[in-house]
Fold:
Amino acid sequence: MTHAPVDPVALTADLIRCPSVTPVEGGALVLLERLLSGAGFACTRVDRNGTANLYARWGARGANRSFGFNGHTDVVPVGDRAAWTQDPFGAAIVDGWMYGRGATDMKSGVAAFAAAAIDFVQDTPPDGAVILAITGDEEGDATDGTVALLDWMAAHGEGMTHCLVGEPTCPDHMGQMMKIGRRGSLTAWFTATGVQGHSAYPHRAKNPMRALTTLLSRLPDQLDDGTGHFDPSTLQITTIDCGNPANNVIPARGTATVNIRFNDAHTGESIATWLRTEAAKVEAETGVQIATRIQISGESFLTPPGDLSALISRAVQAETGITPELSTTGGTSDARFVKNHCPVVEFGLVGRTMHQVDERVEVAHIHQLKSIYTRILRDYFA
Structure:
């Protein structure tokens, strides 16, 4: 080996010590840019609307084969700092576990793929390109994160032929699961406007809460029975409110929110049309106006099992002895954006403590993840 290998555990600790709570960069991307530039990667900051992003490429632009890693360095807020047993930005190691916000989601994943990429290109330079697309906004609105990186890549002739997103994908143990797709996500906000009145004289009012509860009662918890690779589509009521401090006043206005996770039996637009139709029916029945606002955070997608998933699966099995399940479960990730650019799968660490107080990662797993990513690169360019 012609250079000292990058220690992914030390790099994880350095990243955790950067307080990069969305949308603050916190020094994490600055640190990575310095490290990657020193290893021969061409680095470009692709910041947009105050969101920090980093694009790093080793090898020629437009190479016939270019393997990409995608991830994020931003983290969710600490929450109740007093409830933590360790400094959330201290990266303390206790009994083989490293503590800190982002330890699982996903500074360890970024550290593992950055370390693997640097060592790989320096020890066995491939015939092709290795790309790292790292954003500072995945936990927030994500409108200027990976999307901005992909927009910039398209405008500058940059591209990945395949991509791995390093999000934590394993529920309980290392090697358990990889993601080959995700359900889509849609949020709908309903605002019902009626006529305020005394609760003893309901005939003189129009109760928006009755209209809202009628509408919500017609929206099932489950929209279907699932499809070939997907769990059923689900609908959850997340808020109902009218801000009414009085118990004898029919309010003039009420609001409700639902969140839907949908599979490939639907599109965001087909669900939006259904919701607006149901709201219009209740509006006609009650005389209460119901305004509907909808945000589609991402469509469902699937990278069909094939060469890419097989490559990842073989590497995971070789390093862990476990063949990962091919799954589409869980929430959304930035893979929903990458899938428009190239085939994409996700594989990373055990995500049990992500977003929790005392978020932590098993130190041995960070080394293991680097080994998996290294094997993926070696096999991809073999």
